[in-house]
Amino acid sequence: MKLRCSKGELLEGISTVQKAVTGRTTLPILEGILITCYNDRLTLTATDLDLGIETQVNCEIISKGSVVLNSRLLGDIVRRLPDMDIEIEVDSLYNTTISCGNSKFNIIGQNPDEYPELPVINENILYRIPQDLLKNMIRQTIFAAAQDETRPILTGVLFEVRNSVLTMVALDAYRLALRRANLGNADDITAVIPGKTLGEVGKILAQTDDDIAITFTPNHILFTINNTRVISRLLDGEFMNYRQIIPEEFKTKVKVNTKLLLDSIERASLLAKEGKTNLIKMEIGNDEIIITSNSQLGNVHEQVGIEFEGSDIKIAFNSKYFIDVLKIIDTDEIYLELSSSVSPCILKTEDWESHTYLILPVRLISQ
């Protein structure tokens, strides 16, 4: 096998597929990238058996063939080579020579026949979504997915299409993030996508309105993004009924500037972190939110002006959960809906049907 391509395009391809390479595996070959040259195309492939990424790179194919090269080593070599064309040549024993300018590396490759094949996906049923829309939907939900494996299904994000409306939901034991978008004419489907997969897809997506294609099988999902394909297993199990979790009634409603509230909570969290609990208290009433936090090092008092209707309320939260939501809100103002000091707080944007967030309060001893 022999090929020649630009450093920039090769490095971009390597960086893309490296997202699927695992550092913890009992199969050493999975630490590598499969490089294939056939039909005037260079294809790079990586997988950890749950997530697979394949991308194509423009290059000059001098002779066809394939090899598996260590992902970390290959990436480090290409990254440090000069900005010139790179030539890769592989002999019959998979010994590989990488040449660029006055640099030449000789590294040992592996037999490509031992590399696992990615699942074959029938692409008959497609969902098409603008890249920037899906990228934002991932960013605005994934942070709420569970991080521990106690309930594996909650480490994923629900992908639900009903009546051509896509709803993405992530939740753990303390919060929920919901984002909706209209897909036009789309078939109903319900699946749970691993949070890790969506995180890596979000890094590949660009801020463009160009469509990507999404295909499902009973066990897998395929994202086709320009010359890149991302294939992942779906999570097994029943996702929590999120509709039952979101309260439909409230006693107190607040309209507040998103940045002012975020800045105040971030300042209050400086002492909340010192207290090891991230606890902040809010007193809502008289057209203001008073935010306080105490620790052994001192206390903080913040006031934020609001538009307010309903009953006064005192409530406490883990500051991190509030900050996580406020950071991904793109609107200038946000609405808070509350019922009591022990009931969930609902956060919505003005376009409330497309953005809904829920945070459980911290029950104080005095309550």
TrEMBL record:
Intracellular or extracellular location(s): Cytoplasm
Mitochondrion recorded as keyword: no
All residue ranges annotated as the DNA polymerase III beta sliding clamp N-terminal domain in the record: 1-119
Residue ranges of every copy of the DNA polymerase III beta sliding clamp central domain listed in the record: 129-239
SMART domains: POL3Bc
Entry-linked InterPro entries: DNA_clamp_sf, DNA_polIII_beta, DNA_polIII_beta_C, DNA_polIII_beta_cen, DNA_polIII_beta_N
Keyword Glycosyltransferase among record annotations: no
DNA polymerase III beta sliding clamp C-terminal domain ranges (all copies): 243-363
Gene Ontology biological process terms in this record: DNA strand elongation involved in DNA replication
A Gene Ontology molecular function term of the record: 3'-5' exonuclease activity
Pfam families: DNA_pol3_beta, DNA_pol3_beta_2, DNA_pol3_beta_3
Keyword terms: Cytoplasm, DNA replication, DNA-binding, DNA-directed DNA polymerase, Nucleotidyltransferase, Transferase
GO CC terms: cytoplasm; DNA polymerase III complex
Main location (coarse class): cytoplasm
Record-stated family: Belongs to the beta sliding clamp family.
Functional summary from the UniProt entry: Confers DNA tethering and processivity to DNA polymerases and other proteins. Acts as a clamp, forming a ring around DNA (a reaction catalyzed by the clamp-loading complex) which diffuses in an ATP-independent manner freely and bidirectionally along dsDNA. Initially characterized for its ability to contact the catalytic subunit of DNA polymerase III (Pol III), a complex, multichain enzyme responsible for most of the replicative synthesis in bacteria; Pol III exhibits 3'-5' exonuclease proofreading activity.
Self-association and partners: Forms a ring-shaped head-to-tail homodimer around DNA.
NCBIfam families attached to this UniProt entry: dnan (TIGR00663)
Name this protein carries in UniProt: Beta sliding clamp
